[in-house]
Write a structure and sequence with these properties.
The structure is a single chain. Helices cover 12% and strands 63% of the residues. It is mainly β. The protein has one domain: Porin, CATH 2.40.160. The N and C termini lie far apart (53 Å).
C-alpha cells in the first residue's frame, strides 16, 4: 500500500510539472527586421554626366510571407559629374519576391525612394527614384548568405539613371 502511495505521488508530481510548463504563454520576441545586407559593386550612371563609380549599399529585410519581403536601406556613391565631384545618397524601399527552397534563392524586386545629390557647383538636389532589379541569394550556413544583384534605377521620371551590379554578404537575424 505504501508503494502505491509513493508511485501515485511520484506520478502526480510528474503530471503537475508538465502541466505547469504548459501554462507558460511567453512567446519568443520577433525583431522588427529579419536580416541585414552589406553590398558593394559597380555603378554606371547618367546623371549630369556619364561614367562609373563604386556604390556601397546597406539594407534591412523584413519577411512579409515565405516568399515576399520588404527591403529598406540606402546606397551611397561618389560620381564624377560634368561640373565636378558629387555625393549621391539614395534611401529607398522595395518589395522583393523570391522563390526556391534550396541553397539558391533567385529574386526580383521593385520599389522607389529619393536621391539626394550634393555637388560642389550646383549644391543640393533632391530627386524621386524608381528601382527594379533581380539576383540570387546563396545560403552559406544557417545565418550567413551571399548576394548577387543587378539593379536599374530611374531618377526624376527617368531624366537620369543608374545601373548597378552589386555583390555582398547578408546575415539573418532570426
Amino acid at each position: 500500500m505504501r508503494r502505491l502511495a509513493v508511485l501515485m505521488s511520484f506520478g502526480l508530481l510528474i503530471a503537475s510539472a508538465s502541466a505547469a510548463s504548459a501554462q507558460d504563454f511567453a512567446r519568443p520576441q520577433r525583431s522588427s527586421i529579419d536580416g541585414v545586407e552589406f553590398l558593394v559593386g559597380y555603378m554606371d550612371y547618367d546623371l549630369s554626366g556619364t561614367g562609373s563609380t563604386v556604390p556601397i549599399a546597406i539594407r534591412g529585410t523584413k519577411a512579409l510571407t515565405s516568399n515576399l519581403s520588404l527591403e529598406f536601406g540606402g546606397t551611397f556613391a561618389t560620381p564624377e559629374l560634368q561640373f565636378g565631384s558629387s555625393r549621391l545618397l539614395m534611401p529607398e524601399a522595395r518589395l522583393t519576391y523570391s522563390w526556391g527552397t534550396g541553397r539558391f534563392r533567385p529574386f526580383v524586386s521593385g520599389g522607389g525612394g529619393f536621391a539626394w545629390q550634393r555637388a560642389d557647383l550646383v549644391g543640393n538636389r533632391w530627386r524621386s527614384t524608381l528601382t527594379a532589379g533581380g539576383g540570387v541569394r546563396m545560403q552559406l550556413n544557417d545565418r550567413l548568405y551571399a548576394v548577387g544583384e543587378l539593379r536599374l534605377r530611374g531618377l526624376s521620371d527617368f531624366a537620369a539613371s543608374t545601373a548597378e551590379w552589386l555583390g555582398g554578404i547578408g546575415w539573418q537575424l532570426q
